[in-house]
């Protein structure tokens, strides 16, 4: 079973990502994205969805028009794991 | 400019939809959906996204794995309008 990261590990990993932060009230990481319009926002979500399915690791996310908020956590570990960092890194790579 | 529905109009329209209800703290309608898995949930979202873009009327929505919550309201009218009912009816038609 995958282990959740320690606070130190999590902080170290977040520091290497772009714009991600620890969620306020739970062991998760989150980032807000803003795009030109809905077309661009949903196109981004489609790319993340395909990657998430491939990883069998899915985001929690909210969208309204050009804005997307993504929260990542690993249910079975009840916290942030390397899987979340991997998905966050992919997301960063397509929004550079 | 599109006018928001009166309380009576809104209630009448909601009664003809499936599973939609008035949102708790704002003039909006919402519905929760549950699918077999993420593939089915995101496929549903893609169909709604294409319709929304065609209508130039976009949802606020949240997804985690097989669950989708959709809130509809019309920004420029600051409340529920016929556009929301139209999009809700389309969504109902693809989830029957």
From TrEMBL, chains A, B:
It is an enzyme of class 4 (lyase). GO terms for molecular function: 4-alpha-hydroxytetrahydrobiopterin dehydratase activity. Its EC number is 4.2.1.96. GO terms for biological process: tetrahydrobiopterin biosynthetic process. It catalyses: (4aS,6R)-4a-hydroxy-L-erythro-5,6,7,8-tetrahydrobiopterin = (6R)-L-erythro-6,7-dihydrobiopterin + H2O. This is Putative pterin-4-alpha-carbinolamine dehydratase. Keywords: Lyase. It comes from Paraburkholderia ribeironis. Belongs to the pterin-4-alpha-carbinolamine dehydratase family. The keyword Lyase applies.
